[in-house]
């Protein structure tokens, strides 16, 4: 499991581990007087904020397999649908954006259950990470 996913793994302190990593990143950038740009994304709320009837209609318009559409429709009644964090983490990491620490390690994101905190050296890179994340969710839900 990626270090960025500690917030959702077994045998960790969950969000406490992530908060300690976040604090270390912030202190490292402050000490070295380097830029740090962050963004929070709550992907659970993005899914919940749309009318489920509209989501189902969009899936139909994009010609998603009927069996899969029915599965999603039934899932909406029972639980909240969440994307698998592994492809999300892999795509964000492969983007090449992130904040480079004194140690040489580059941190691009941390996962906290249904939240993702993105790290970059400037606003342009943060926008690129957000765009990559948006495309990832598009692919996960429509393909």
Automatic annotation (TrEMBL):
It comes from the Eukaryota. PANTHER family: REVERSE TRANSCRIPTASE DOMAIN-CONTAINING PROTEIN. This is Reverse transcriptase domain-containing protein. It comes from Takifugu flavidus (sansaifugu).
């Amino acid at each position: 499991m990626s270090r960025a996913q500690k917030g959702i793994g077994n045998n960790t302190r969950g969000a406490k581990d992530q908060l300690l990593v976040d604090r270390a990143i912030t202190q490292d950038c402050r000490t070295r007087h380097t830029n740090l740009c962050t963004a929070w994304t709550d992907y659970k709320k993005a899914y919940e904020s749309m009318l489920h009837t509209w989501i189902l209609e969009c899936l139909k318009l994009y010609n998603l397999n009927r069996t899969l559409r029915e599965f999603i429709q039934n899932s909406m009644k029972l639980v909240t649908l969440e994307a698998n964090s592994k492809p999300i983490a892999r795509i964000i990491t492969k983007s090449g954006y992130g904040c480079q620490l004194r140690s040489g390690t580059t941190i691009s994101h941390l996962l906290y259950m249904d939240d993702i905190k993105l790290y970059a050296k400037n606003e342009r890179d943060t926008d690129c990470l957000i765009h990559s994340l948006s495309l990832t969710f598009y692919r996960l839900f429509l393909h």
